[in-house]
Amino acid sequence: MAAIAYLRGFFETSQPGVEWMGRIFALDQIARAPAEPFHTPVRAWIERLLFPQSRVTNLMLIAVISVIFSFLLTGRQIFAAKWGLIDDHETFEQLISQGSPIGHVWTALFDPQQILPRNRPAYYLLKAIQTSLFGSDVRLWYLRNTICFALFLFSIWWVAARFVGGWLGGALTAMIALLPLWAGIWSRLGPSEIEGSAMTGAMILCADAVMFSESRLARNIGAVLLAISAVVLAGLKETFLPLALGGTIFVLVLGVARKRIIPWLAIGLIAISLLFVAMFGLLIWTNARVTGTDYYGKSVGLSFILEFAAIGILDGFVRTWWLWLLPIAFAQLLQLTSRRSFREWIAGSQVAIASYVFIIAMYAAQCGLYRSVFPRHMRYDFPAMLLVPLTFCILCCEVSRRVQSRYPKAVTNRAQLIAAIFIGFAVATSAIQTPALLLAAIDRNIKVTNGFWSTLQDVVRAGQANAHRPIVVEAYGARSYEGVFALKVYLAALGAPNPVAIRFYKLNTEPPSPLQGRLMELEGGGSRFSFSPLAESLNSIPNCISVGLYGPSDPTCTVGFLVSNE
Asked: Considering the entire predicted model, what is its pTM?
Protein backbone atom coordinates (compact mmCIF):
# COMPACT_ATOMS: atom_id res chain seq x y z
CA MET A 1 0.00 0.00 0.00
CA ALA A 2 2.87 2.35 0.76
CA ALA A 3 4.38 1.81 -2.70
CA ILE A 4 0.99 2.38 -4.37
CA ALA A 5 0.48 5.58 -2.43
CA TYR A 6 3.95 6.73 -3.40
CA LEU A 7 3.43 6.09 -7.10
CA ARG A 8 0.00 7.69 -7.00
CA GLY A 9 1.48 10.75 -5.37
CA PHE A 10 4.38 10.69 -7.80
CA PHE A 11 2.22 11.22 -10.86
CA GLU A 12 -0.94 12.94 -9.53
CA THR A 13 -1.71 16.29 -7.96
CA SER A 14 -4.88 18.19 -7.23
CA GLN A 15 -3.54 21.01 -5.10
CA PRO A 16 -4.95 24.44 -5.89
CA GLY A 17 -2.71 27.37 -6.63
CA VAL A 18 -0.11 25.44 -8.56
CA GLU A 19 0.21 26.26 -12.27
CA TRP A 20 -0.42 23.33 -14.58
CA MET A 21 3.15 23.21 -15.91
CA GLY A 22 4.52 23.81 -12.46
CA ARG A 23 2.79 20.63 -11.33
CA ILE A 24 5.04 18.60 -13.61
CA PHE A 25 8.09 19.88 -11.79
CA ALA A 26 6.68 20.48 -8.29
CA LEU A 27 6.63 16.80 -7.48
CA ASP A 28 7.91 17.50 -3.98
CA GLN A 29 4.43 18.74 -3.08
CA ILE A 30 2.79 15.51 -4.20
CA ALA A 31 1.41 12.71 -2.07
CA ARG A 32 1.21 14.62 1.23
CA ALA A 33 -2.07 13.01 2.09
CA PRO A 34 -1.95 10.87 5.26
CA ALA A 35 -0.81 7.34 4.60
CA GLU A 36 0.47 4.37 6.53
CA PRO A 37 2.96 5.19 9.29
CA PHE A 38 5.78 3.54 7.38
CA HIS A 39 5.02 5.49 4.17
CA THR A 40 7.75 8.10 4.74
CA PRO A 41 10.58 5.62 5.47
CA VAL A 42 9.67 3.53 2.42
CA ARG A 43 9.52 6.60 0.24
CA ALA A 44 12.89 7.80 1.53
CA TRP A 45 14.38 4.36 0.89
CA ILE A 46 13.10 4.36 -2.71
CA GLU A 47 14.52 7.86 -3.22
CA ARG A 48 17.95 6.75 -1.99
CA LEU A 49 17.81 3.67 -4.17
CA LEU A 50 16.81 5.55 -7.32
CA PHE A 51 19.02 8.59 -6.77
CA PRO A 52 22.22 7.69 -4.89
CA GLN A 53 24.04 10.80 -3.70
CA SER A 54 27.51 9.31 -3.29
CA ARG A 55 29.85 10.17 -6.18
CA VAL A 56 31.76 6.96 -5.57
CA THR A 57 28.57 4.90 -5.82
CA ASN A 58 27.56 6.66 -9.01
CA LEU A 59 31.05 6.21 -10.41
CA MET A 60 31.00 2.47 -9.78
CA LEU A 61 27.48 2.04 -11.14
CA ILE A 62 28.17 3.99 -14.32
CA ALA A 63 31.48 2.19 -14.89
CA VAL A 64 30.02 -1.29 -14.36
CA ILE A 65 26.93 -0.66 -16.49
CA SER A 66 29.05 0.89 -19.27
CA VAL A 67 31.20 -2.25 -19.39
CA ILE A 68 28.12 -4.49 -19.37
CA PHE A 69 26.45 -2.47 -22.12
CA SER A 70 29.60 -2.51 -24.24
CA PHE A 71 29.93 -6.25 -23.71
CA LEU A 72 26.31 -6.87 -24.70
CA LEU A 73 26.88 -4.99 -27.96
CA THR A 74 30.36 -6.23 -28.89
CA GLY A 75 31.32 -9.01 -26.49
CA ARG A 76 30.22 -11.95 -28.64
CA GLN A 77 33.24 -11.35 -30.84
CA ILE A 78 35.58 -12.17 -27.96
CA PHE A 79 34.49 -15.80 -28.04
CA ALA A 80 33.23 -16.25 -31.60
CA ALA A 81 35.20 -14.07 -34.06
CA LYS A 82 38.57 -14.89 -35.65
CA TRP A 83 41.28 -13.03 -37.52
CA GLY A 84 40.15 -11.33 -40.72
CA LEU A 85 41.75 -10.80 -44.11
CA ILE A 86 42.07 -7.02 -44.12
CA ASP A 87 44.24 -5.11 -41.59
CA ASP A 88 44.54 -8.00 -39.13
CA HIS A 89 47.62 -9.38 -40.89
CA GLU A 90 49.62 -6.41 -39.57
CA THR A 91 49.73 -8.13 -36.18
CA PHE A 92 51.31 -11.24 -37.69
CA GLU A 93 53.68 -9.11 -39.75
CA GLN A 94 54.99 -7.55 -36.56
CA LEU A 95 55.20 -10.92 -34.81
CA ILE A 96 57.37 -12.46 -37.53
CA SER A 97 59.57 -9.38 -37.94
CA GLN A 98 63.08 -9.42 -36.55
CA GLY A 99 63.35 -7.95 -33.08
CA SER A 100 60.49 -6.78 -30.91
CA PRO A 101 57.35 -5.32 -32.51
CA ILE A 102 57.95 -1.99 -30.78
CA GLY A 103 61.53 -1.77 -32.03
CA HIS A 104 60.43 -2.72 -35.54
CA VAL A 105 57.81 0.03 -35.67
CA TRP A 106 60.07 2.62 -34.06
CA THR A 107 62.73 1.98 -36.69
CA ALA A 108 60.23 1.97 -39.53
CA LEU A 109 58.80 5.33 -38.49
CA PHE A 110 62.13 6.95 -39.34
CA ASP A 111 63.07 4.70 -42.25
CA PRO A 112 63.63 6.77 -45.42
CA GLN A 113 62.03 3.93 -47.37
CA GLN A 114 58.79 4.61 -45.44
CA ILE A 115 57.97 0.99 -44.68
CA LEU A 116 55.12 2.26 -42.52
CA PRO A 117 52.86 5.26 -43.22
CA ARG A 118 54.63 8.01 -41.32
CA ASN A 119 51.62 10.21 -40.61
CA ARG A 120 50.18 7.86 -37.97
CA PRO A 121 53.04 7.28 -35.52
CA ALA A 122 50.88 6.82 -32.43
CA TYR A 123 48.70 4.27 -34.21
CA TYR A 124 51.60 2.02 -35.13
CA LEU A 125 53.33 2.38 -31.78
CA LEU A 126 50.12 1.48 -29.94
CA LYS A 127 49.60 -1.43 -32.33
CA ALA A 128 53.15 -2.65 -31.58
CA ILE A 129 52.59 -2.37 -27.82
CA GLN A 130 49.35 -4.30 -28.10
CA THR A 131 51.04 -6.93 -30.25
CA SER A 132 53.71 -7.38 -27.58
CA LEU A 133 51.01 -7.78 -24.94
CA PHE A 134 48.34 -9.78 -26.78
CA GLY A 135 50.37 -11.69 -29.37
CA SER A 136 48.19 -13.74 -31.70
CA ASP A 137 45.41 -14.34 -29.16
CA VAL A 138 42.48 -12.87 -31.07
CA ARG A 139 40.24 -12.95 -28.00
CA LEU A 140 42.39 -10.33 -26.28
CA TRP A 141 42.21 -8.08 -29.34
CA TYR A 142 38.42 -8.19 -29.39
CA LEU A 143 38.40 -7.64 -25.62
CA ARG A 144 40.36 -4.47 -26.33
CA ASN A 145 37.49 -3.32 -28.59
CA THR A 146 34.96 -3.90 -25.82
CA ILE A 147 37.06 -2.02 -23.25
CA CYS A 148 37.67 0.94 -25.56
CA PHE A 149 33.96 1.22 -26.32
CA ALA A 150 33.14 0.99 -22.62
CA LEU A 151 35.61 3.80 -21.88
CA PHE A 152 33.98 6.08 -24.43
CA LEU A 153 30.46 5.33 -23.17
CA PHE A 154 31.56 5.82 -19.57
CA SER A 155 33.04 9.23 -20.35
CA ILE A 156 29.83 10.47 -21.99
CA TRP A 157 27.64 9.10 -19.20
CA TRP A 158 29.84 10.36 -16.36
CA VAL A 159 29.98 13.94 -17.63
CA ALA A 160 26.29 14.04 -18.59
CA ALA A 161 25.30 12.69 -15.16
CA ARG A 162 26.70 15.83 -13.53
CA PHE A 163 23.97 17.85 -15.21
CA VAL A 164 21.09 15.52 -16.04
CA GLY A 165 21.50 12.79 -13.42
CA GLY A 166 22.40 9.15 -13.80
CA TRP A 167 19.11 7.98 -15.32
CA LEU A 168 18.85 10.57 -18.08
CA GLY A 169 22.60 10.42 -18.67
CA GLY A 170 22.29 6.67 -19.18
CA ALA A 171 19.45 7.10 -21.67
CA LEU A 172 21.47 9.63 -23.66
CA THR A 173 24.49 7.32 -23.61
CA ALA A 174 22.38 4.41 -24.87
CA MET A 175 21.18 6.62 -27.72
CA ILE A 176 24.80 7.36 -28.69
CA ALA A 177 25.86 3.71 -28.29
CA LEU A 178 23.34 2.58 -30.92
CA LEU A 179 24.38 5.07 -33.61
CA PRO A 180 25.07 3.56 -37.05
CA LEU A 181 28.60 4.99 -37.16
CA TRP A 182 29.90 2.33 -34.72
CA ALA A 183 29.17 -0.54 -37.11
CA GLY A 184 32.39 -0.11 -39.08
CA ILE A 185 34.54 0.45 -35.99
CA TRP A 186 33.85 -2.18 -33.34
CA SER A 187 33.24 -5.04 -35.78
CA ARG A 188 36.88 -4.97 -36.90
CA LEU A 189 40.32 -5.01 -35.30
CA GLY A 190 42.25 -2.65 -37.57
CA PRO A 191 40.58 0.80 -37.61
CA SER A 192 42.41 3.64 -35.90
CA GLU A 193 38.98 4.85 -34.74
CA ILE A 194 39.11 2.15 -32.03
CA GLU A 195 41.96 3.83 -30.17
CA GLY A 196 40.62 7.18 -31.34
CA SER A 197 37.35 6.61 -29.50
CA ALA A 198 39.24 5.58 -26.36
CA MET A 199 41.48 8.66 -26.49
CA THR A 200 38.45 10.88 -27.08
CA GLY A 201 36.84 9.34 -24.00
CA ALA A 202 40.05 9.94 -22.03
CA MET A 203 40.04 13.60 -23.11
CA ILE A 204 36.43 13.98 -21.99
CA LEU A 205 37.24 12.53 -18.56
CA CYS A 206 40.30 14.77 -18.24
CA ALA A 207 38.20 17.78 -19.18
CA ASP A 208 35.72 16.78 -16.48
CA ALA A 209 38.54 16.70 -13.93
CA VAL A 210 39.76 20.13 -15.02
CA MET A 211 36.36 21.79 -14.87
CA PHE A 212 34.69 20.10 -11.89
CA SER A 213 37.23 18.54 -9.55
CA GLU A 214 37.41 20.12 -6.10
CA SER A 215 41.09 19.23 -5.73
CA ARG A 216 43.62 21.59 -7.27
CA LEU A 217 46.05 18.70 -7.72
CA ALA A 218 43.40 16.66 -9.54
CA ARG A 219 42.66 19.59 -11.85
CA ASN A 220 46.33 20.04 -12.72
CA ILE A 221 46.82 16.31 -13.30
CA GLY A 222 43.69 16.29 -15.45
CA ALA A 223 45.11 19.12 -17.55
CA VAL A 224 48.41 17.29 -18.09
CA LEU A 225 46.66 14.03 -18.99
CA LEU A 226 44.37 15.95 -21.32
CA ALA A 227 47.38 17.21 -23.29
CA ILE A 228 48.93 13.72 -23.38
CA SER A 229 45.68 12.16 -24.60
CA ALA A 230 45.40 14.86 -27.26
CA VAL A 231 48.93 14.19 -28.54
CA VAL A 232 48.19 10.45 -28.78
CA LEU A 233 44.90 11.16 -30.55
CA ALA A 234 46.61 13.45 -33.05
CA GLY A 235 49.15 10.73 -33.83
CA LEU A 236 46.49 8.11 -34.48
CA LYS A 237 45.07 9.63 -37.63
CA GLU A 238 45.47 12.86 -39.56
CA THR A 239 41.75 13.67 -39.41
CA PHE A 240 41.91 13.65 -35.59
CA LEU A 241 44.25 16.65 -35.51
CA PRO A 242 41.51 19.33 -35.19
CA LEU A 243 39.73 17.46 -32.40
CA ALA A 244 42.97 16.84 -30.50
CA LEU A 245 44.31 20.37 -30.70
CA GLY A 246 40.97 22.17 -30.65
CA GLY A 247 39.69 20.16 -27.70
CA THR A 248 42.83 20.85 -25.67
CA ILE A 249 42.76 24.58 -26.34
CA PHE A 250 39.02 24.83 -25.69
CA VAL A 251 39.15 23.07 -22.30
CA LEU A 252 42.32 24.76 -21.04
CA VAL A 253 41.21 28.25 -22.05
CA LEU A 254 37.84 27.65 -20.42
CA GLY A 255 39.62 26.33 -17.33
CA VAL A 256 41.70 29.50 -17.07
CA ALA A 257 38.66 31.72 -17.64
CA ARG A 258 36.84 29.97 -14.78
CA LYS A 259 39.94 29.97 -12.57
CA ARG A 260 40.16 26.19 -12.47
CA ILE A 261 43.82 26.01 -13.48
CA ILE A 262 46.68 28.50 -13.42
CA PRO A 263 47.43 30.33 -16.70
CA TRP A 264 51.10 29.29 -17.03
CA LEU A 265 50.19 25.61 -16.88
CA ALA A 266 47.59 26.04 -19.61
CA ILE A 267 50.02 28.03 -21.78
CA GLY A 268 52.73 25.40 -21.38
CA LEU A 269 50.44 22.50 -22.21
CA ILE A 270 48.97 24.28 -25.22
CA ALA A 271 52.49 25.05 -26.48
CA ILE A 272 53.56 21.40 -26.11
CA SER A 273 50.40 20.20 -27.85
CA LEU A 274 50.98 22.68 -30.67
CA LEU A 275 54.56 21.45 -31.05
CA PHE A 276 53.55 17.80 -31.42
CA VAL A 277 50.63 18.59 -33.71
CA ALA A 278 52.97 20.70 -35.86
CA MET A 279 55.36 17.74 -36.09
CA PHE A 280 52.56 15.43 -37.18
CA GLY A 281 51.33 18.04 -39.63
CA LEU A 282 54.83 18.32 -41.10
CA LEU A 283 54.94 14.57 -41.66
CA ILE A 284 51.57 14.68 -43.39
CA TRP A 285 52.61 17.64 -45.54
CA THR A 286 55.87 15.91 -46.50
CA ASN A 287 54.05 12.80 -47.69
CA ALA A 288 51.39 14.84 -49.48
CA ARG A 289 54.02 16.91 -51.28
CA VAL A 290 55.68 13.76 -52.62
CA THR A 291 52.51 11.99 -53.74
CA GLY A 292 50.26 14.97 -54.42
CA THR A 293 47.44 13.21 -52.55
CA ASP A 294 46.42 12.53 -48.98
CA TYR A 295 46.22 9.14 -47.28
CA TYR A 296 42.93 8.42 -49.09
CA GLY A 297 44.24 9.29 -52.54
CA LYS A 298 42.41 12.63 -52.80
CA SER A 299 44.13 15.70 -54.20
CA VAL A 300 45.57 18.01 -51.58
CA GLY A 301 44.66 21.67 -51.89
CA LEU A 302 43.88 24.35 -49.32
CA SER A 303 41.06 25.75 -51.42
CA PHE A 304 39.24 22.40 -51.46
CA ILE A 305 39.67 21.99 -47.71
CA LEU A 306 38.31 25.47 -46.97
CA GLU A 307 35.45 25.03 -49.41
CA PHE A 308 34.19 21.85 -47.75
CA ALA A 309 34.84 23.30 -44.29
CA ALA A 310 32.54 26.20 -45.12
CA ILE A 311 29.94 23.76 -46.40
CA GLY A 312 30.36 21.83 -43.15
CA ILE A 313 29.60 24.92 -41.06
CA LEU A 314 26.36 25.54 -42.92
CA ASP A 315 25.44 21.86 -42.89
CA GLY A 316 26.13 21.62 -39.17
CA PHE A 317 23.84 24.53 -38.36
CA VAL A 318 21.10 23.22 -40.65
CA ARG A 319 21.20 19.86 -38.89
CA THR A 320 21.02 21.27 -35.36
CA TRP A 321 19.36 24.71 -35.25
CA TRP A 322 15.94 23.26 -34.46
CA LEU A 323 17.27 21.51 -31.36
CA TRP A 324 17.91 24.91 -29.80
CA LEU A 325 14.97 26.83 -31.22
CA LEU A 326 12.18 24.45 -30.22
CA PRO A 327 12.87 24.42 -26.44
CA ILE A 328 13.21 28.22 -26.38
CA ALA A 329 9.97 28.68 -28.33
CA PHE A 330 8.24 26.07 -26.15
CA ALA A 331 9.30 27.81 -22.95
CA GLN A 332 8.26 31.22 -24.24
CA LEU A 333 4.85 30.12 -25.54
CA LEU A 334 3.94 28.36 -22.29
CA GLN A 335 5.38 31.22 -20.24
CA LEU A 336 7.67 28.89 -18.35
CA THR A 337 10.34 31.57 -18.33
CA SER A 338 10.35 35.33 -18.51
CA ARG A 339 10.57 36.79 -21.97
CA ARG A 340 14.17 37.45 -22.96
CA SER A 341 15.96 38.72 -26.01
CA PHE A 342 18.17 36.40 -28.04
CA ARG A 343 21.26 38.13 -26.61
CA GLU A 344 20.06 37.48 -23.07
CA TRP A 345 19.55 33.78 -23.85
CA ILE A 346 23.12 33.56 -25.13
CA ALA A 347 24.51 35.48 -22.16
CA GLY A 348 22.83 33.04 -19.78
CA SER A 349 24.20 29.96 -21.57
CA GLN A 350 27.72 30.93 -22.53
CA VAL A 351 29.36 27.58 -21.80
CA ALA A 352 26.63 25.63 -23.60
CA ILE A 353 26.81 27.92 -26.63
CA ALA A 354 30.61 27.72 -26.69
CA SER A 355 30.44 23.91 -26.55
CA TYR A 356 27.94 23.88 -29.38
CA VAL A 357 30.11 26.15 -31.53
CA PHE A 358 33.09 23.90 -30.82
CA ILE A 359 31.17 20.82 -32.01
CA ILE A 360 30.11 22.67 -35.18
CA ALA A 361 33.74 23.63 -35.79
CA MET A 362 34.88 20.03 -35.36
CA TYR A 363 32.23 18.83 -37.78
CA ALA A 364 33.31 21.45 -40.32
CA ALA A 365 36.95 20.40 -39.88
CA GLN A 366 36.06 16.78 -40.64
CA CYS A 367 34.20 17.87 -43.77
CA GLY A 368 37.23 19.86 -44.87
CA LEU A 369 39.80 17.14 -44.23
CA TYR A 370 37.74 14.46 -45.95
CA ARG A 371 36.60 16.88 -48.69
CA SER A 372 33.15 15.44 -48.24
CA VAL A 373 29.90 15.81 -46.35
CA PHE A 374 28.47 13.31 -43.91
CA PRO A 375 27.23 10.70 -43.34
CA ARG A 376 29.46 8.45 -45.40
CA HIS A 377 28.03 5.31 -43.77
CA MET A 378 31.51 4.12 -42.89
CA ARG A 379 33.85 4.25 -39.92
CA TYR A 380 34.96 7.67 -41.17
CA ASP A 381 31.72 9.07 -39.72
CA PHE A 382 33.50 9.22 -36.35
CA PRO A 383 33.58 11.80 -34.85
CA ALA A 384 31.63 13.90 -37.36
CA MET A 385 28.27 12.14 -36.98
CA LEU A 386 28.28 12.74 -33.22
CA LEU A 387 27.19 16.28 -34.14
CA VAL A 388 23.44 15.91 -33.55
CA PRO A 389 23.58 13.51 -30.55
CA LEU A 390 26.14 15.66 -28.70
CA THR A 391 24.18 18.81 -29.49
CA PHE A 392 21.12 17.15 -27.99
CA CYS A 393 23.15 16.16 -24.91
CA ILE A 394 24.37 19.74 -24.48
CA LEU A 395 20.80 20.99 -24.76
CA CYS A 396 19.59 18.50 -22.13
CA CYS A 397 22.40 19.53 -19.80
CA GLU A 398 21.60 23.20 -20.23
CA VAL A 399 17.86 22.73 -19.70
CA SER A 400 18.55 20.61 -16.63
CA ARG A 401 20.90 23.27 -15.26
CA ARG A 402 18.21 25.91 -15.58
CA VAL A 403 15.58 23.66 -14.01
CA GLN A 404 17.87 22.88 -11.07
CA SER A 405 18.28 26.60 -10.40
CA ARG A 406 14.50 26.98 -9.98
CA TYR A 407 13.36 23.76 -8.31
CA PRO A 408 14.60 21.56 -5.45
CA LYS A 409 16.96 18.66 -6.09
CA ALA A 410 14.31 16.04 -5.39
CA VAL A 411 12.03 17.60 -7.99
CA THR A 412 14.64 17.68 -10.73
CA ASN A 413 15.67 14.09 -9.95
CA ARG A 414 12.14 12.89 -10.63
CA ALA A 415 11.77 15.03 -13.73
CA GLN A 416 15.04 13.61 -15.09
CA LEU A 417 13.85 10.09 -14.36
CA ILE A 418 10.63 10.67 -16.29
CA ALA A 419 12.59 12.14 -19.22
CA ALA A 420 14.95 9.14 -19.12
CA ILE A 421 11.97 6.76 -19.30
CA PHE A 422 10.63 8.51 -22.40
CA ILE A 423 14.03 8.64 -24.14
CA GLY A 424 14.81 5.06 -23.14
CA PHE A 425 11.46 3.92 -24.50
CA ALA A 426 12.10 5.74 -27.78
CA VAL A 427 15.58 4.20 -28.09
CA ALA A 428 14.31 0.70 -27.26
CA THR A 429 11.40 0.98 -29.69
CA SER A 430 13.68 2.16 -32.47
CA ALA A 431 16.16 -0.66 -31.75
CA ILE A 432 13.40 -3.28 -31.85
CA GLN A 433 11.88 -1.99 -35.08
CA THR A 434 15.27 -1.46 -36.76
CA PRO A 435 18.02 -3.55 -35.15
CA ALA A 436 21.24 -1.64 -34.57
CA LEU A 437 23.67 -1.75 -37.47
CA LEU A 438 26.43 -2.52 -34.98
CA LEU A 439 24.82 -5.83 -34.01
CA ALA A 440 24.35 -6.77 -37.67
CA ALA A 441 27.95 -5.84 -38.45
CA ILE A 442 29.22 -7.98 -35.58
CA ASP A 443 27.15 -10.95 -36.77
CA ARG A 444 28.63 -10.51 -40.23
CA ASN A 445 32.16 -10.17 -38.85
CA ILE A 446 31.84 -13.40 -36.87
CA LYS A 447 30.59 -15.25 -39.95
CA VAL A 448 33.16 -13.80 -42.34
CA THR A 449 36.20 -14.19 -40.07
CA ASN A 450 35.33 -17.77 -39.18
CA GLY A 451 34.97 -18.64 -42.85
CA PHE A 452 38.23 -16.92 -43.77
CA TRP A 453 40.23 -18.43 -40.90
CA SER A 454 38.94 -21.93 -41.58
CA THR A 455 39.88 -21.68 -45.26
CA LEU A 456 43.27 -20.18 -44.43
CA GLN A 457 44.10 -23.07 -42.13
CA ASP A 458 43.11 -25.51 -44.89
CA VAL A 459 45.49 -23.72 -47.27
CA VAL A 460 48.30 -23.86 -44.70
CA ARG A 461 47.77 -27.58 -44.11
CA ALA A 462 47.76 -28.23 -47.84
CA GLY A 463 50.95 -26.23 -48.21
CA GLN A 464 52.70 -28.00 -45.35
CA ALA A 465 51.73 -31.38 -46.78
CA ASN A 466 53.17 -30.43 -50.19
CA ALA A 467 55.95 -27.94 -49.54
CA HIS A 468 57.26 -28.18 -53.12
CA ARG A 469 53.97 -27.02 -54.65
CA PRO A 470 53.69 -23.27 -55.30
CA ILE A 471 50.67 -21.38 -54.04
CA VAL A 472 49.10 -19.21 -56.74
CA VAL A 473 46.85 -16.42 -55.48
CA GLU A 474 44.21 -15.62 -58.10
CA ALA A 475 43.67 -11.88 -57.48
CA TYR A 476 40.40 -10.60 -58.93
CA GLY A 477 40.21 -6.84 -59.32
CA ALA A 478 42.07 -3.97 -57.70
CA ARG A 479 40.39 -4.52 -54.34
CA SER A 480 42.46 -7.68 -53.91
CA TYR A 481 45.64 -5.60 -53.59
CA GLU A 482 45.76 -5.58 -49.80
CA GLY A 483 44.49 -9.14 -49.66
CA VAL A 484 47.44 -10.61 -51.57
CA PHE A 485 49.91 -9.09 -49.11
CA ALA A 486 47.79 -10.20 -46.19
CA LEU A 487 47.71 -13.78 -47.44
CA LYS A 488 51.49 -13.79 -47.93
CA VAL A 489 51.99 -12.65 -44.32
CA TYR A 490 49.51 -15.14 -42.93
CA LEU A 491 51.02 -18.06 -44.84
CA ALA A 492 54.53 -17.21 -43.64
CA ALA A 493 53.40 -16.66 -40.03
CA LEU A 494 51.41 -19.91 -39.88
CA GLY A 495 54.23 -22.02 -41.25
CA ALA A 496 53.45 -22.64 -44.93
CA PRO A 497 56.88 -22.94 -46.63
CA ASN A 498 55.56 -22.79 -50.19
CA PRO A 499 56.55 -20.11 -52.71
CA VAL A 500 53.70 -17.70 -53.40
CA ALA A 501 52.88 -16.16 -56.79
CA ILE A 502 50.24 -13.68 -57.92
CA ARG A 503 47.99 -13.95 -60.98
CA PHE A 504 45.94 -10.79 -61.56
CA TYR A 505 42.54 -10.76 -63.28
CA LYS A 506 41.42 -7.32 -64.42
CA LEU A 507 37.68 -6.81 -64.08
CA ASN A 508 35.85 -5.02 -66.87
CA THR A 509 33.45 -3.47 -64.36
CA GLU A 510 36.08 -1.41 -62.52
CA PRO A 511 37.80 1.74 -63.82
CA PRO A 512 41.59 1.86 -64.28
CA SER A 513 43.59 2.47 -61.10
CA PRO A 514 47.24 2.44 -59.98
CA LEU A 515 46.55 -0.69 -57.91
CA GLN A 516 45.92 -2.67 -61.08
CA GLY A 517 49.37 -1.81 -62.38
CA ARG A 518 50.99 -2.77 -59.08
CA LEU A 519 49.27 -6.14 -59.06
CA MET A 520 50.44 -6.82 -62.60
CA GLU A 521 53.98 -5.95 -61.52
CA LEU A 522 53.72 -8.47 -58.69
CA GLU A 523 53.14 -11.22 -61.26
CA GLY A 524 56.79 -10.82 -62.15
CA GLY A 525 57.83 -11.56 -58.60
CA GLY A 526 60.00 -9.58 -56.23
CA SER A 527 58.96 -6.82 -53.81
CA ARG A 528 59.79 -6.85 -50.15
CA PHE A 529 57.32 -9.73 -49.66
CA SER A 530 59.35 -11.99 -51.98
CA PHE A 531 56.64 -13.14 -54.36
CA SER A 532 57.69 -15.79 -56.83
CA PRO A 533 57.45 -15.10 -60.58
CA LEU A 534 54.12 -16.30 -61.93
CA ALA A 535 55.73 -17.93 -64.98
CA GLU A 536 57.75 -20.30 -62.80
CA SER A 537 54.67 -21.29 -60.80
CA LEU A 538 52.62 -21.95 -63.93
CA ASN A 539 55.27 -24.43 -65.04
CA SER A 540 54.27 -26.52 -62.02
CA ILE A 541 50.67 -27.02 -63.16
CA PRO A 542 48.89 -29.21 -62.19
CA ASN A 543 51.13 -29.58 -59.12
CA CYS A 544 50.08 -26.25 -57.61
CA ILE A 545 47.74 -24.90 -54.94
CA SER A 546 45.34 -22.25 -56.24
CA VAL A 547 43.73 -19.72 -53.89
CA GLY A 548 40.97 -17.63 -55.40
CA LEU A 549 40.79 -14.14 -53.86
CA TYR A 550 37.34 -12.61 -54.51
CA GLY A 551 36.91 -15.10 -57.32
CA PRO A 552 37.21 -18.78 -58.27
CA SER A 553 40.42 -20.77 -58.00
CA ASP A 554 42.18 -22.30 -61.00
CA PRO A 555 40.61 -25.74 -61.65
CA THR A 556 43.78 -26.95 -63.39
CA CYS A 557 45.68 -26.92 -60.10
CA THR A 558 45.60 -30.00 -57.90
CA VAL A 559 44.11 -28.17 -54.91
CA GLY A 560 41.88 -25.09 -54.93
CA PHE A 561 40.45 -22.77 -52.28
CA LEU A 562 38.26 -19.66 -52.26
CA VAL A 563 39.11 -16.77 -49.93
CA SER A 564 36.93 -13.72 -49.49
CA ASN A 565 36.29 -10.89 -47.09
CA GLU A 566 32.55 -10.92 -47.76
From this structure: 0.87
